[in-house]
């Protein structure tokens, strides 16, 4: 059965052969045509990872009458950029490994000039190949693929020249165009599912501020596309307990190793203590994934992708905002596109109820944020903490710490059980 569905074209950037290849290969036509000069050392890769269900098409232009053997085609999780002329394999491995997936042909495929070979894989780990341009056959099933994966082929056989073509995908070279198209596609899919991965009901809309982003971004749809390494999107919503923010990846540059940086702006200012670089140690991120940021009652901000592998980012002290008499501190999240993620949108956010926002954190850790920022409480020293009897905060901040946090004094850190107002002459 042919799995190609014409009405569900994958939105992709242009595909070509990678600049890293065997020394018996010549590339031309903007690196879409590969010609073999001699046998051996004829390995080729795609210029970027291919997406699940994206179809790689190889058009056979020339055959050799002097050599025999099939073209070998498969997948690898090894980034071709990591190879040097010394470490580049001369051929693909004969057996599947954790880094190479090379299906063996069934029987003798009919390889002819002016015919097309197609390959695709699914996120579940099924690899399909079509050797004669008629229908896909499942050649191999591996563990679910949760890494970037490149198409690899070895021109060490009867095929002497081959061309990489894209006719079964919607190819968009402009990153803003790709982001817009994927936004429409993902939004339509989300409406069909009637929810985000993170919330069974509807998320509330929000506003964002874009910094150094492409001028053609869709501000009305909260779509931000990277212009340079300082491009970012700020969520214009003050963080509260039990709030969560959902973002979605619309475009990526797979030549970079990390994904993006997330930091918290405190009263509009960045803090070195509240910034985290998101890399592959957090999770594997890919196009269409939803990123969820949750604010826990104790002030910890957690990160997850598609609601899996929840990991902490940093901690903010929300107790400073518990007392309305104290000047409120603003906490806002900023997503800096200084890595592989080059297109983001705000899917929505969950605004907690008043009861949820006032959920008390555990009585351990933390401290008065005002004291941490200013060394001493900016409202003066009028709160004597008990039982440690340290005078380092105002009475209002002291009351906010009772049964919630420990003493801000770094040499103390005892749980605060009470606060007495102190008067000075």
From TrEMBL:
<dbReference type="InterPro" id="IPR037962">
    <property type="entry name" value="Neuralized"/>
</dbReference>
<dbReference type="GO" id="GO:0061630">
    <property type="term" value="F:ubiquitin protein ligase activity"/>
</dbReference>
<feature type="domain" description="NHR">
    <location>
        <begin position="14"/>
        <end position="167"/>
    </location>
</feature>
<dbReference type="InterPro" id="IPR006573">
    <property type="entry name" value="NHR_dom"/>
</dbReference>
<dbReference type="InterPro" id="IPR013083">
    <property type="entry name" value="Znf_RING/FYVE/PHD"/>
</dbReference>
<dbReference type="Pfam" id="PF07177">
    <property type="entry name" value="Neuralized"/>
</dbReference>
<dbReference type="InterPro" id="IPR043136">
    <property type="entry name" value="B30.2/SPRY_sf"/>
</dbReference>
<protein>
    <recommendedName>
        <fullName>NHR domain-containing protein</fullName>
    </recommendedName>
</protein>
């Amino acid at each position: 059965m042919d799995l190609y569905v014409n009405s569900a074209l994958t939105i992709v950037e242009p595909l070509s052969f990678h600049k890293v290849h065997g020394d018996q290969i010549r590339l031309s036509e903007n690196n879409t045509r590969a010609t073999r000069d001699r046998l051996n050392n004829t390995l080729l890769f795609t210029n970027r990872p291919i997406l699940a269900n994206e179809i790689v098409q190889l058009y056979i232009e020339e055959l050799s009458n002097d050599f025999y053997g099939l073209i070998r085609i498969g997948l690898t999780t090894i980034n071709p950029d990591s190879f040097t002329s010394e470490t580049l394999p001369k051929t693909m491995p004969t057996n599947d490994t954790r880094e190479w997936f090379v299906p063996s042909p069934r029987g003798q495929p009919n390889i002819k000039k002016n015919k097309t070979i197609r390959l695709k894989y699914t996120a579940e780990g099924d690899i399909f190949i079509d050797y004669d341009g008629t229908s896909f056959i499942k050649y191999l099933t591996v563990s679910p693929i949760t890494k970037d994966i490149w198409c690899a082929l070895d021109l060490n056989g009867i095929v002497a020249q081959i061309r990489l073509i894209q006719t079964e995908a919607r190819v968009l070279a402009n990153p803003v165009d790709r982001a817009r198209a994927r936004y429409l596609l993902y939004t339509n899919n989300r409406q069909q599912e009637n929810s985000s991965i993170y919330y069974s009901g509807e998320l509330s809309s929000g506003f964002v501020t874009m910094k150094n982003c492409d001028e053609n971004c869709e501000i009305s749809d909260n779509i931000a596309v990277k212009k340079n390494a300082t491009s970012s999107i700020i969520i214009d919503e003050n963080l509260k307990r039990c709030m969560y923010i959902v973002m979605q990846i619309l475009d990526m540059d797979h030549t970079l190793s990390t994904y993006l940086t997330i930091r918290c702006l405190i009263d509009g200012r960045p803090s070195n203590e509240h910034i985290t670089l998101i890399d592959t140690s957090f999770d594997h991120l890919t196009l269409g994934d939803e990123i969820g940021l949750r604010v826990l009652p104790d002030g910890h901000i957690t990160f997850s992708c598609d609601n899996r592998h929840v990991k902490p980012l940093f901690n903010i002290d929300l107790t400073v905002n518990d007392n309305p008499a104290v000047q409120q501190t603003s906490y806002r999240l900023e997503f800096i596109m200084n890595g592989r993620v080059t297109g983001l949108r705000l899917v929505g956010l969950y605004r907690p109820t008043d009861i949820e926002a006032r959920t008390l954190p555990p009585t351990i850790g933390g401290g008065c944020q005002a004291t941490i920022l200013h060394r001493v409480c900016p409202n003066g020293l009028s709160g004597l903490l008990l039982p440690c009897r340290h005078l380092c905060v105002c009475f209002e901040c002291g009351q906010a710490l009772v049964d919630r946090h420990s003493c801000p004094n770094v040499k103390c850190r005892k749980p605060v059980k009470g606060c007495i107002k102190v008067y000075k002459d």
